[in-house]
Design goal:
By secondary structure, the protein is an alpha+beta fold. The chain has a domain at 110-173: SH3 type barrels (Roll), CATH 2.30.30. The protein is 23% helix and 24% strand. The protein contains three helices and seven strands. It has helices at 2-23, 39-45, 50-61; strands at residues 110-119, 125-133, 136-140, 145-147, 150-155, 159-163, 170-173. The protein has a four-stranded antiparallel sheet with strand order 4-5-6-7, with no helix packed on it.
């Protein structure tokens, strides 16, 4: 058994060596080095208009713009100047005594994710709306409240109608 294994490994090794020797070229092609041209010869070989663009770039880069100083250095702590604040004894000028506007509060986002259907005992479909209210998923039936003052008015196979008491229903449809 040892002799057969030794012969098998020897033949396999010889085949691998022969394959690698055949894959290596005997006369590798060495690329020639690029020739350095004089400026006069270089101008004759170049693309038309290249010399004018190169000159324009040289004049532009002769005085490069100075880099701007950043307003904030992330590697230092407390590097920014403190904002100017008035002292408690000073009063604001009478022309600037305008009350700040209250922030606009947007209603929570209500998205219809899906509609689930069940069959009642009499065979009629009973729909349940699956909605997302500010990222929270809720399962709602007809008459249940979505938000304070808003309830589900109607659910059918593709839409959900919400009633917020203003008389204008809000319609949610499946995407």
């Amino acid at each position: 058994m040892r002799t057969k294994r030794l012969v098998g490994w020897s033949i396999g090794g010889a085949l691998v060596v022969a394959w690698m020797a055949a894959a290596t070229p005997s006369d590798p092609q060495v690329p020639e080095r690029s020739v350095v041209l004089s400026p006069a010869a270089r101008a004759a070989v170049t693309v038309p208009g290249f010399a004018t663009e190169a000159d324009r770039l040289r004049t532009f880069m002769s005085a490069p713009p100075a880099p701007h100083r950043p307003a904030r250095n992330p590697f230092t702590f407390g590097g920014r100047e403190a904002p100017a604040m008035s002292s408690p004894g000073e009063s604001a000028p009478s022309g600037s005594a305008v009350a700040p506007e209250p922030p606009v509060v947007s209603p929570p986002a209500i998205d219809l994710i899906g509609i689930a259907t069940e069959r009642a005992a009499d065979g009629s479909p009973v729909y349940t709306a699956i909605v997302s209210v500010d990222g929270l998923m809720r399962f709602l039936a007809v008459g249940e409240g979505v938000l304070p003052g808003t309830r589900v008015a109607d659910i059918d196979a593709a839409t959900v109608m919400l009633d917020d008491g203003t008389g204008v229903p809000r319609r949610l449809t499946l995407p």
